[in-house]
Amino acid sequence: MFLGDAPDQLAAKTATGIVHWRRDWCLGQLQLPSCKADLGLPGMSVSEAAAAGCRTLVIGVANRGGVIPETWIPTLVNALEAGMDVAAGLHQRVADIDDIAGAAAANGRQLFDVRHPTQTFSVGSGERRPGKRLLTVGTDCSVGKMYTALAIGHELQSRNAKADFRATGQTGIFIAGGGVSVDAVVADFISGATEWLTPANEPDHWDLVEGQGSLFHPSYAGVTMGLVHGAQPDALIVCHEPTRSHMRGLPHQPLPDVQDCIDGHVAAARLTNPDAVCLGVAVNTSALSSDDERRRCLSEIEQRTGLPAVDPVIDGVAALVAKMV
Amino acid sequence: MFLGDAPDQLAAKTATGIVHWRRDWCLGQLQLPSCKADLGLPGMSVSEAAAAGCRTLVIGVANRGGVIPETWIPTLVNALEAGMDVAAGLHQRVADIDDIAGAAAANGRQLFDVRHPTQTFSVGSGERRPGKRLLTVGTDCSVGKMYTALAIGHELQSRNAKADFRATGQTGIFIAGGGVSVDAVVADFISGATEWLTPANEPDHWDLVEGQGSLFHPSYAGVTMGLVHGAQPDALIVCHEPTRSHMRGLPHQPLPDVQDCIDGHVAAARLTNPDAVCLGVAVNTSALSSDDERRRCLSEIEQRTGLPAVDPVIDGVAALVAKMV
User: Fold this and answer.
1) CATH at A174
2) Range of the domain at B56
3) Is A63 among the domain residues?
4) Of A140, A181, A219, which to mutate for an interface test with B (greatest number of B Cβ within 10 Å)?
5) Residues A241 and A163 in one domain
């Protein structure tokens, strides 16, 4: 897990997600000197990683805009020279960087740019199709949409319900081994790519669709909108981080109210699924200092919204799944 | 103007727009046998066009999905062999078709794929910037958003106001000689590309931003959302075609009510510009059979919305511009 110079733990959320859901695949972490993220894995240099049997260096850090800084390149080249493949999920392709492409070719190694769809899509049709779908949405980016969808998928599968997690971002794709990074498709095809990812299915089958961005985030709301329309969700879960003072990356932009966020996403979803409802709120309470504070936060959200509110990491998602079956 | 096998007049809206706004640039039209569109230009074969002095064959027809059918290729190759350049604004690049790229190279001609941005963009910031902006939005695709923005730009310029038309689609780019086809940028950068296209300006300068799609169109609402947020419009004009029975291309999808369309777009716009208002409704009444019917339609919309409603082609846009200055 290459963490680069991640300015905070959230910047390494790709690595964090992979380690959480695929711990047995991960042998170590590699941090550059100014890195502020830590996965709790053994720290390794490139040569130590190669000696430990690492077969792939995964770029587990995402920066705004998805560009690969110059300072990362020597480490990535070293990894290829040490016999590892390199996998990335950024907007900029590692395969487009001459030094990296050259080192991969010279050493017979592979480059995986999982954010870049290799197939073409049709524009979305909005036509109703069988099968049930749940989409996680949020008051902001990086509030637990992928985690919540994965946790609900596991809970359903543990009850022997028919369920598939559908990854829409790089971390989810690394975890699931497939999916479409909807923020990287051409804008006209956002909803079409989502329809492709969540096709017609058995009437009692659930797709658990990983959400992206927020309809209230000025940078990414277009992606969210196409994803909402393409997923045709029967059910929405709104994800929220209660201590966030502004939208991620935008100090001038306040967070929406949770109820406004529910109303906005449900209204958008009803364009393609008139029966769409919000089933509950998934709250990341990790930044709250006491269990009392955590309980009070969840209880307030439940009272204001009339919906169950849980922290999926602490409480699990049984209270949400109870409304699905 | 190459019209291919356009199934109806609307499919040739790129050609129609160029001919309307740049009539003196257009010498003739070329239709394949099954073509149902007609621009009223002299019909020409490739050799007649070359003899008449045509220097560029413009693909003036757009089909759903933006793919170039096999049946068009011989004509495009002939044009290149006859000494013409080829310009297109489809999702599929003419430069990516081997026979066309080969003919261009062999004959020293140029290929222009205007839909494909050649620059890279940042993600949108949503930060307020000086200058005034008007965005045309709509109850559907193909209801007059580009025409209305161009007409308002002309009206403002005729009053010596500072104004620029900002093209966001292929037809507008052909007319303006520049712009960004926002439906062709990578999804994460829709609002960022729009911010780039409509930068900070003098406080009394108006950008007239061409809208795309509709927040109520399941295929394209993601593009519309990013465009609304990136443009940060002070003013919106809702464009409408009153005889449309369903969203273009989607027989199962009803059109939104005009007032719901105003409310939805204003609410979205206020995320990045809390002062956004809708100034009026631009109605394409060309399918109404009598002047009485036309007047009644506009009057009903004015009564229901409390806003001026005009047909820009028949009435002009002075009633809308009166609310801007």
Assistant:
1) 3.40.50.300
2) 2-113
3) yes
4) A219
5) yes
CB B16 within 8 A of CB B55: no
In angstroms, the CA B194 to CA B189 distance is 8
Same domain, B147 and B89: no
CB contact under 8 A, A123 and B64: yes
Which of B225, B253, B270 is the best mutation test for A, with the most CBs of A within 10 A? B225
Domain identity same for B101 and B140: no
Nearest to A218 among B215, B221, B271 (CB): B271
Centroid of chain to Cα B223 = 13
In a domain, residue B124? The reply is: no
Burial of B194 (0-12, 13-18, 19+ CB in 10 A): buried
Residues A109 and A136 reside in one and the same domain: no
Asked if residue B292 is part of any domain, the answer here is yes
The first and second tokens of residue A258, run together, are 């949770």
* pTM (predicted TM-score): 0.92
Q: Where are the alpha helices (DSSP H) in A73-220?
A: 73-81, 98-107, 145-158, 170-176, 190-197
Residue A64: list chain B partners with CB under 8 A.
123
Does one domain contain both B108 and B141? no
Do residues A93 and A143 share a domain? no
The verdict on A136 and A109 lying in the same domain is no
Chain B nearest-CA distance from A64, in A, is: 8
| pLDDT for res A302 | 98
Total number of domains constituting chain B: 2
User: Is B184 within 8 Å of A182 when comparing Cβ atoms?
Assistant: no
Asked whether the beta carbons of residue A183 and residue B186 sit closer than 8 angstroms, the reply is: yes
Q: Does A194 touch chain B (CB under 8 A)?
A: no
- Predicted confidence pLDDT, tens digits, chain A (325 residues): 999 999 999 899 899 999 999 999 999 999 999 999 999 999 999 999 999 999 999 999 987 777 899 999 999 999 999 999 999 999 899 999 999 999 999 999 999 999 998 888 999 999 999 999 999 999 999 899 999 999 999 999 999 999 999 999 999 999 999 999 999 999 999 999 999 999 999 999 999 999 999 999 999 999 999 999 999 999 999 999 999 999 988 999 999 999 999 999 999 999 999 999 999 999 999 999 999 999 999 999 999 999 999 999 999 999 999 999 8
Residue A125 lies in a domain: no
Taking residues B197-201, report their average pLDDT: 98
Q: Pick the closest to residue A254 from A244, A265, A239, A242 (CA basis).
A: A244
> Do B126 and A192 count as a contact with CB atoms less than 8 A apart?
no
The CATH number for B42's domain is 3.40.50.720
C-alpha A50/C-alpha B101 separation (Å) is 45
